[in-house]
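Subject: mismatched residue count in predicted assembly?

I count 224 residues in my input, but I want to confirm that the predicted structure covers every chain. Input:
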Amino acid sequence: NAGVTQTPKFQVLKTGQSMTLQCAQDMNHNSMYWYRQDPGMGLRLIYYSASEGTTDKGEVPNGYNVSRLNKREFSLRLESAAPSQTSVYFCASSEREGPNEQYFGPGTRLTVT
Amino acid sequence: GESVGLHLPTLSVQEGDNSIINCAYSNSASDYFIWYKQESGKGPQFIIDIRSNMDKRQGQRVTVLLNKTVKHLSLQIAATQPGDSAVYFCAENPPRYKLSFGAGTTVTVRA
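Triage response: the counts match. Full output below for your records.
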């Protein structure tokens, strides 16, 4: 039982390049989330998926797109990376939408030059 | 802006002492609160949660206290150990919204 896994762990992009961050969970959770974490700030929600087949914007969705590929997998795509997207990205999952514990992956550290 | 905040960005604690980490939240309608621990280079890890119909909840070496009157949440760690050194986040969950995280408190345990 690996919990929440993310790939890659590290990535360096040039401005304008695109990439997809992958996330998978093996806990049969319905809801999944993407956050970004910047120095001195808390986690900010980018997008979430309450259940398979649905996605919704969070607090900071601009510049990102997501795909809930199936119940296990939720990917985050940067179509044209910008230096402002330099951050650590965390994927999380929870059993259901609403107030309950979220389980986090180990993160992807992204640098955009 | 931040809807959840921590009173102190850093806390230094002597090994063996008890730690108290404070958190102020802004939404009086929030009905669920959660504490996470994040070690360097890792993802946040669940510590304990509490619902608004409770004032106190205890876990293993940790206690969360909720004071809804002043919108204050605290995490108490008993007999702090070196492995407790980390950043601690509180988060609140208002109805119909998602978890909102504070900026975190960095706890350093002195040997």
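Chain B touches chain A at residues 2, 4, 31-32, 34, 36, 41-46, 49, 51, 89, 91, 93, 98-104 (CB under 8 Å). Marking this ticket as 'not a bug'.
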